[in-house]
Every structure is written in C-alpha cells, then in structure tokens.
C-alpha cells in the first residue's frame, strides 16, 4: 500500500480475516475503506472505530454491506448487481442490500437513474451512517433528490430526520427526500436477520422512525417498488430533467431485464465472504448468576416494595460507535425507555471516572449513602470487565437501594452475547458451550444449520371490520380454532423480508382480506437450491400456513437457482399449498422460464402488488 497509495480499498475477505485487513488499511491511511463481510465480531468493530476516531485520514463504509457504487461515474466497490443500476440523479443510502436493489430496480424501470448509492450495512455499528451520507448528497452536484432506506434498530433514522429539519432551515431549495422503513411487524426482542436489526433501550421503533422522517417533510412509501413513480413525479415537480435520465437509463433498463450470469462448471455463484449466522446467546438466570459472581456481582431476589429502583448496564452506542453505560433513575417498564440515557466511552480505555459519575448522577444516586455509591462504581467497573472479556452485546440489570444495609441490591439480569465472536472469531468457546441444546427446537436447529433465519410470528385475530390484534400463540400450540389461512414468506435478504412482512400486514389484514404473514424467513447470503427446499420445509411445518409467498430480488442470489429450488421442493417435499412467486433481478427471465417449463401449479408474477393481491385471494379462499 505504501507504493500504490490507493484512494480506496475493498475488503472482500471473510469475517475472521476482515478485522486485520481493515486495521491494515487504517494504518496505511487509505481514505475510503469498504468492508462487505457479515458478522465481524462486534468487539472487533468497536476497537476499529476507536482507531478511526483517533485519526482523520480514513472513512469506513460497512461492514455487512454490499458496498458503494457511483452509477453516474461507473465505479463500484462492493458486489451490487450492476445491470440493475442506471446513471442519473437520485442518491440512495440504505441499511439493507436487497431493499436498496428493489429501490434501484424500481427507479431504473421508471427511467430514473441513480448518482451515488451508499450501503451503510445492517450491523450493530456502521462505519458510515445516514447523516454522513446526507452530507455527501447535499454537496454532490449530480444528486438532485435523495432516498433513505431504513429499518428498525439504532437511531440513525431519527438523527437523519433531525439533520433534514436543520437542512431545510438553512437551505433555500433543499433537495427532495423520500424514504421507506422496514420492521413494523417485527416481534419485540428478536434479532431480525441483520445483526443490528433489534431495538435497544431508548431506541425508536419502525413506527417512530417513520413518524420522525414524515414530520421532517420526507415523502414516505411503504414498499420500495413505489420509488420509481414517486421520484419521477418529484423530479418533474422540482424541475428535474426526467427525459434526460430516461434516455441515459434506457440501455441499462434493457440490460436489467435481460441480464444473465452463466454459472461455470465447478464454480459456485454463492459468495464465501458473507456467511449467515444466528447472532444471539442469552443465558439462563442460573448461568447469569454464576457468570456475574465470577466478576464480583452478586444477585439477589427482587426486593418487595422498594421505593427506589434504578437501571444500569453496558450496551453499544450506535451513534458514537462505541460502548456506553446505560443508566436510568427508574426501572419502571412504563417509563424506562423515556428515562434511560447512554454515556459513551472509548473502547480501548474503558469508562472514565467522569463518565461513571455522570451515569450515577443520572440514576439519582449521587446523593446516595457513600457505601451504596462506592458499590455502584464497582458494579460499573466489574460489568465493563465482564462485557469486554466475554464480548457481550448487551448487559444490564436492575438496582434497588436497601434501606436496612445501605447496599445496592442487584436483580433481574439480562446478558446477551455475540455469536460472531465464537463462530467467526473462534473465541469464547467456553461461554457458548453454555447454550442449552435441549431447548433448541428441531425446526430452529434445521434453519440454523442451513444458514436460514426463520422466525415464526404471532397469530393475528381479525374482528369484523377492524385491524388485527396480535397474540403470541406459537405455531406448535395453535389451537384448532386458530387461523389456518396465514402466509408463509420466503425472501432473500433481511431487509426485504422485513418489508415483505410489513406490506402483507398492511395490505391484507383488513377487508376484503383477513390474513397476514406467519413468519419471517431470510434465506441468507449463501442461499442455494437446497436452501430453498429447506425453507419450504420449515414454512410448511407451520399448520397455520395456507399459501407460500416467494419474494426474491436477485442480486448475488440468482433467480434461476431460486426457481430450481422451488421445483426441488415440489418434487422432494410434496408442496400441497398454493405458491405465489415473484422473481426480480439477476437471471429473472431464466428463472421465470424454469418455472414455466416445470408445469407446476405456481402463480408467477413480476409486479409486487399483483403478487400480493393474488396471495390475499388464495389465503381468503383457503380460509373459507
């Protein structure tokens, strides 16, 4: 690197090699570093960001991102599907790769090209966030309008909304902005495919993110397939030259429809750089008790009628890209999200005395008895030691002041550890052997072994003329009176899977329909025909499913390979439920031809809305 002095570098190696490669690029002061690998251990990334914050030469995009592409400048660092893109004037920033492909595909089909597309990625901590991208788009002369593709997890959407409000106050003719948010129907407490797709304490939901952007004057859509028409109208209203972008996109649009990737014998089309893993290890109460005791944190039973309860923990601060103390003066569930605050600190140096004292003051313990206050300081230090040494993601517990002894009582711990440290980094083996294998269902085990993220969703109720009310009845215990007309979803990409579940609920949970998704299923980054067959098996094991909806946007995932997997499922599993398939993207025409020649009872669509309507009709018919 010293001889070449590159302006940018792409880190394409697997997660267990990516950390060293990123650190080498930072040390070489490469200005732009793009990392695509999924599931780099969180603590590796926090150490990397500590390094980045101590210098001003390098910027990181990713990790867990398809990269950055300038369609207008014909330059890509990453693996976005090139035929989908066309040169134009729409800047895009997205967490989800597949949702960004959907967005680009919709724009290209509408004759609206793209300028710069930045995939910030779906990890807990992103090297580049939405505000960083918006600042670039503001000053980019080739960008005339902007699209934000967000999802649940973190606060980058809310921060973007704040930036947009300020931008509109200080600029006479601000560039128009549109957005989509995924994750409205995500069950609480689940990691939804992307490592960062979970809601931490004090973080907003998909609904609150949507509202924040809407209040900032952003044009909101519920599915990225709508962006083509929406942005075409916006450009026309703001004086953008739509015809010029249509002409520049014409060749790419034609290529997008007919794009083909031929697999060579002995060559795997699946990337080895983005393995799909479950990223969660929660300990039982007994296991938590024993581990905390090793770090001089002793638990008690929850105190009865304590007048003073507090909340304390350590968790990532996604905004500062560092660990933070999380603290609240109350542990009351009804107000905890509003009262909790984060106190960030440098990963390599740990929490300073000033940071610890600020957290204690926020918990309203700065006037506590000296014994209790000193104990709280030690609790924070010991918890940080555990968090750091065991590579935790989220650790917290409740505190109460004992009036009798002036001691802090610690109870109800929550310890959440990073699977990637074990699976990618080959570390923390002793901790991960604590996982209760007997508690893992056969369905979960099969999904995990196949690299599939499969999460059954609660059963809905449909009172006449009203919106659904969710229950939490798991599929294994669904009563005979429970729903039998739900939709099994099979999707490639976590963001697209989130949005598919959201859209099915929005379109089909009210009259004339009365159905919604039975599950979230992301086939994973290394999906094969065998993966698709296994996905069908998982979906059809749920007795509530009456129709299967396959929604694919092929980037690295090839549509003809998906089609072959569907046929394999029909032959080897015996699919007796109706199947609706929507194939878009790489090799879509080949995939459609494979399905057509198979002569199977499959309803194939190109348009998303048409496919959803057909799914609703079939589910209604099965529910009669």
TrEMBL record:
Coiled-coil residues:
none
Region Disordered, annotated ranges: 242-278, 306-326
List the molecular function annotations (GO) for this entry. Answer: succinate-CoA ligase (ADP-forming) activity; succinate-CoA ligase (GDP-forming) activity
Q: Which residues form the ATP-citrate synthase/succinyl-CoA ligase C-terminal domain?
A: 94-218, 490-614
Classify the source by domain of life. Answer: Eukaryota
Q: Name one Pfam family in it.
A: Ligase_CoA
Ranges of Polar residues composition bias in the record: 316-326
GO cellular-component term (any)? succinate-CoA ligase complex (ADP-forming)
| Family annotation (Gene3D superfamilies) | ATP-grasp fold, B domain, NAD(P)-binding Rossmann-like Domain, Succinyl-CoA synthetase domains
One biological process term in Gene Ontology: tricarboxylic acid cycle
Mind telling me which PANTHER family this protein's record contains? SUCCINYL-COA LIGASE SUBUNIT ALPHA (PTHR11117), SYNTHETASE SUBUNIT ALPHA, PUTATIVE (AFU_ORTHOLOGUE AFUA_1G10830)-RELATED (PTHR11117:SF6)
User: What's the protein called, per UniProt?
Assistant: ATP-citrate synthase/succinyl-CoA ligase C-terminal domain-containing protein
Annotated source species: Alternaria arborescens
């Amino acid at each position: 690197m010293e001889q070449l002095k590159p302006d940018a570098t792409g880190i394409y190696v697997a997660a267990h090699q990516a950390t060293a490669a990123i650190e080498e690029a930072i040390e070489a002061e490469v200005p732009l570093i793009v990392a695509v690998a999924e599931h780099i251990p969180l603590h590796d990334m926090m150490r990397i960001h500590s390094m980045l914050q101590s210098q001003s030469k390098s910027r990181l995009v990713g990790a867990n991102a398809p990269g950055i592409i300038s369609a207008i400048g014909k330059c890509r660092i990453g693996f976005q599907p090139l035929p989908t893109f066309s040169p134009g004037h729409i800047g895009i920033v997205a967490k989800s790769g597949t949702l960004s492909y959907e967005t680009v595909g919709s724009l290209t089909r509408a004759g609206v090209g793209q300028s710069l597309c930045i995939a910030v990625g779906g990890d807990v901590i992103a090297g580049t966030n939405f505000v960083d991208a918006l600042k670039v788009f503001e000053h980019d002369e080739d960008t005339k309008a902007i699209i934000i593709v967000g999802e649940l997890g973190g606060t980058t959407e809310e921060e973007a909304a704040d930036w947009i409000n300020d931008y509109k106050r200080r600029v006479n003719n601000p560039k128009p902005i549109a957005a989509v948010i995924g994750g409205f129907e995500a069950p609480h407490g689940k990691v939804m495919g992307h490592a960062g797709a979970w809601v931490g304490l004090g973080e907003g939901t998909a609904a609150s993110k949507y509202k924040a952007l809407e209040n900032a004057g952003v044009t909101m859509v519920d599915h990225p397939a709508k962006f083509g028409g929406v942005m075409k109208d916006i450009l026309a209203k703001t004086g953008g030259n739509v015809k010029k972008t249509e002409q520049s996109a014409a060749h790419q649009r034609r290529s997008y429809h007919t794009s083909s990737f031929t697999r060579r014998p002995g060559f795997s089309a699946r990337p080895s750089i983005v393995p799909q893993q479950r990223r969660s290890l929660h300990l039982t109460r007994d296991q938590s008790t024993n581990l905390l005791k090793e770090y001089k944190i002793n638990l008690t039973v929850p105190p009865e009628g304590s007048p003073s309860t507090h909340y304390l923990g350590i968790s990532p601060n996604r905004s500062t890209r560092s660990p933070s103390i999380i603290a609240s003066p109350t542990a009351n569930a009804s107000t905890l999200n509003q009262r909790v605050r984060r106190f960030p600190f440098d990963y390599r140096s740990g929490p300073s005395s000033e940071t610890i004292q600020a957290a204690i003051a926020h918990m309203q313990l700065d006037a506590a008895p000296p014994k209790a206050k000193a104990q709280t300081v030690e609790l924070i230090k010991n918890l940080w030691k555990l968090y750091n040494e065991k590579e935790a993601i989220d650790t917290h517990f409740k505190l109460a002041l004992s009036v009798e002894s002036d001691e802090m009582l610690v109870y109800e711990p929550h310890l959440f550890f990073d699977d990637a440290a074990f699976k990618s980094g080959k570390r923390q083996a002793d901790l991960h052997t604590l996982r209760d294998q007997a508690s893992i269902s056969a369905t979960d085990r099969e999904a995990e072994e196949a690299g599939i993220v499969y999460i059954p969703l609660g059963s809905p109720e449909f009172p006449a003329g009203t919106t659904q009310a969710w229950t939490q009845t798991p599929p294994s215990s669904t009563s005979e009176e429970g729903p039998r007309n739900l939709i099994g979803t099979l999707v490639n990409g976590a963001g697209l899977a989130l949005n598919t579940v959201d859209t099915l609920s929005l379109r089909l949970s009210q009259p004339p329909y009365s159905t919604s998704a039975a599950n979230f299923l992301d086939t994973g980054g290394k999906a094969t025909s065998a993966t698709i067959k296994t996905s069908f098996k998982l979906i059809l094991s749920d007795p509530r499913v009456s129709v299967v909806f396959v929604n694919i946007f092929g980037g690295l995932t090839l549509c003809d390979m998906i089609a072959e997997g569907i046929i394999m499922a029909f032959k080897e599993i015996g699919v007796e439920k109706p199947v609706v398939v929507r194939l878009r993207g790489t090799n879509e025409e080949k995939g459609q031809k494979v399905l057509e020649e198979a002569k199977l009872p499959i309803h194939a669509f190109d348009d998303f809305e048409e496919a959803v309507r057909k799914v609703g009709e079939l589910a209604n018919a099965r529910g009669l």
